[in-house]
Amino acid sequence: MLESLTPPKSLVDQVYEVILDALCDGTFKPGERLTQESIAARLNVSRQPVTHALAVLKAQGFLAQGRQGLTVTAVDPDFFAAIYQIRSAVEPLAVKLATPRLTKESIARGRALIDHGRKLVAAGDSRASLQADMDFHSFIYELSGNPLIAETMRLHWRHLRRAMGEVLRHPGMSTSVWKEHARILDEMVRGDGNAAAELMRRHLVEAFERVGKTDRASKEPA
Questions:
Q1: Domain 77-219, what fold?
Q2: What is the pLDDT of residues 188-204, one digit of tens each?
Q3: Which of 80, 89, 153, 185 has the greatest number of beta carbons closer than 10 A?
């Protein structure tokens, strides 16, 4: 029996993902002007796929039209808060649902994800650390057995990545994130879904609050 082949990603999709990665990991800073010419040259592609990718990113709110072209938008504080309001409600539920569904295999997978994330933080690889963080949360979404949870999170995946990038770029935040992930998984392994869910809720709420305090402090005069 022949298996169907997965079509390769189009050049537009590839360009889009590269630019989005750069937006999410902070390579492109808020207020920075992006031009089709410079990006096409950096990626060694024609302007056409870049034009299409930038148009999509503009429609999604990552870019805005300025006087001198497209500029990178800042993460809107209200939207940032909205993302974490959703997460703090949905993800504790995912943890509760996932806890009784743990198996030896899934426990091993969860611990491997945590170990991998810690190694990436120690190596200073912020881009890979961000992906590892999302992989851990996605692991819980999938383990919950509720397809709407994963679907809801995927719906906001792009902005969620950028919001998480804002969290993880703060000094010391990445290390504490993986300690908290480990505690959540430990409570799940113990079978205490309520305790694990509360740890997840605090994990999300406190991350949001810490970033808010750090941002306010950075704007205060020295």
A1: Four Helix Bundle (Hemerythrin (Met), subunit A) (1.20.120)
A2: 999 999 999 999 999 99
A3: 185
